[in-house]
Request: fold
Amino acid sequence: MSLFAIVGIGVVGLVALIFLFAGLALISDNQVGVLTKKMFGKKMPEGQIIARNGEIGIQAWTLMPGLYWRNPIAWKIEKVPVTDIHPNEIGVLESVDGEPLLKGRRLGDEVECDQFQNAKAFLDNGGQKGPQVAVLRPGTYRINTKVFKVTKKPVQTIPKEKIGIVIALDGIPLPSGYIVAPKPIETKDESHPKYRSHKFFQDGQAFLDSEGYRGPQLDTLQAGEYYVNPLLFEVKNEDVADVPPGYVAVLRSNVGKELEKKAEKPGEISKEPTFDQALHESIETLLIPDRNTRGIWREPVAPGKYNLNRIAFTPYLVPTSAVTINWAAGSEVRSEYIGNAPKSKTPLVEKSESDKATEFFKFSQLRVTSKDGFQLDVDVKMIIRIRPENAAFIIARFGSVENLIEQIVHPLIDSSFRNKAGEEKAIEFIRGRTKLQQEALEKARAEFAQYNVEAQNLLIAYIDVDKALLETQTKKEIAIQQIEQYTEEAKARQGEIQVREKEARSAKQKDVIDAKLEIDIKTDKATARAKEAEGESNYIRTVADGNAHREREVGKGVADAYKAQVEALGGPGYVAMVKLIQEVAAGKVRITPDVLVTGGEGGQGGNLFNAFMATLLTQQLPAKAKSDEEKKVN
Reply:
């Protein structure tokens, strides 16, 4: 064999080895073999990208781990890594080939293809070109990356104290008049065998097969991890609804079809509107018991935490404990917010912290003008309460408690105090604050009841008085106090006099008692003497009567004796002589002088002296005799 022949054989052998090795491909366990046919085959139909039956181009089927040889001239073997989806990830796929997407759809329906590991089955079973509804869950997949583009996305995580608001990006277009999509039908029947649960939006195909609608969904995702296709569902994390103690939440439902409104003429305006008329029109209230109908729920939500879909339901917090309204110095001036005036950065009302059960609303002082022209600034504090069963009516009528305070409570209390001040003088207004406070509270209770609000208390904290009036009143009060002081001092003086009088009486009390006893003794003696005199008088009268009777009897006897004597002796001279002798014997006729004056040896002077002494004795004897007679009587 010549050298050229040997060299030729060597070259041919080398070329053969090169050709042989060029066609060899070893696919390892973590690899996928992707084939591309370069020649020697049929051309694919127009519009087709992936060869399904050996046509020239990228082949749908892949090579599993092992050693393969393909004609390097006709075939190209590419080794790509397997697709690994970690536990906190999902694989979102997009197909480069397949049937066109249905009109109005954004994602291709799921088909049987061994989780996208069999591209030929995907294409043969009607897989659609573009983003896919199905996703790859955590695991390892042998995906033909020339057919499917895999994008790794984090799983949908809902943290604690959060909820997931789901918005569907594909499905049946949301009907006109709806804000929140109706819930998909999850119960299958004979006419709809594909209806089934979408398992919290993790089964996108079930959502579509159950006639799921695009747009915000009524159901929410609770705290946890979900394998949700972000191409099909957009999930927004929102805070759970927290209704603190002392409040209820009134819910306005946005679920259901937009309410039909009939074309009507404007209502008639009442010429004499009163509280007896209806305060709410049907369009203002629309209280509903059905939560799947638009309007305001009749029953409020009690304190607690709720997984509330804020797109489907709008909550309005209503305080059901004490609501304090304060008109005091240092608060915001309300005039900044009347009419269309722009609001400042400082709110009209200031709330307390959300964990407190009491709401505070602050206004400036109530400035009123009295009947006599004085301006008074009144600090007022009012406490109202909204019962839970009336909370929905407050929201339906006013939209918020702030609006209720601003539109009803504040104007009513302000006008009530202004009107009362205009009817009274400043001093009367200040002095009658207790009565004014009670009247204002009673009026508020009567009128607030028409709006389903309880007026619990009203307090007048302070009345700022004009300095001129205060000075005049102070002087007047000082004068009154001085008068009262002088009056009290006079009373004290009078009391002192009475005390001293009583002291003097007390000091003389012994003498008074002695005198009284002496009077009593003398009175008793006088009474005894009177009784004695009365007895003596009776005795004398009796004796006199006896003596008179005796004398009459004696007289009769004497007369009879005289008569007998006269008759015996004869003549009336005898009677006269006897009578004279009786008178002399009784001492009534004196036959001798009381005092005998005789002459002495001294001559005439002695006789005169004796005559003078005799005359004195004559004057004293009757007086002495009379005194002796009185002593005998006493």
Remarks:
- The CA atoms of residues 298 and 373 lie 50 Å apart.
- The radius of gyration is 69 Å.
- The first helix runs from residue 3 to 23.
- Residues 593-634 form one domain.
